[in-house]
């Protein structure tokens, strides 16, 4: 875990990737369970609700993502199915939370094909606190795009998980430190401004 940069909430977005019912219901998820990951993300959201920070809930239409594999046979022939996934963090459905945005993506990363970058830049955001499932797919794709677009990136290890716990460990040991800071939720919460 590296020392965190100074965090200015007015320039910070908490981006939670794919914390939705159909993804969290995977048979294997680790090293933290789906319930543990949700608990940690909910703690972060509670701390940031109605502050100067932006909370971004990202959801993916897994049916649309499956059509992105042109070399595989699929029955959809490029058609799209409505996204029926339910975001599992209460903040996504809280009518009193004034700093929450929902981004619907069709790809692994939250930037490609969405207006996430535009929305962050309009608000002067330069720092992203990144969490979610899965570490080696949606979280990684979003982290790489954030790095390439010059955001300061803080990835929170115990707020993420993967269908393959070994992949999670590899990405947090070898990949995420190359594109930003890696921390745990306790350290992050201790470094957030009052």
Explain briefly what this protein structure is.
The protein is of the alpha/beta class. 35% of the residues lie in helices and 20% in strands. The two termini are 22 Å apart.
Can you tell me about this structure?
By secondary structure, this protein is of the alpha/beta class. The chain has a single domain, classed as Isochorismatase-like (Rossmann fold, 3-Layer(aba) Sandwich). It is built from 7 helices and 6 strands, in the order E-H-H-E-H-E-H-E-H-E-H-E-H. Helix 3 links the parallel strand 2 and strand 3.
What distance separates the N and C termini? Answer: 22 Å
Strand content: 15-25%
Helix content: 25-40%
Strand tally = 6
Mean of all residue-level pLDDT scores: 92
Pfam families: Isochorismatase
InterPro entries: Isochorismatase-like_dom, Isochorismatase-like_hydrls, Isochorismatase-like_sf
Family: Belongs to the isochorismatase family.
Keywords: Hydrolase
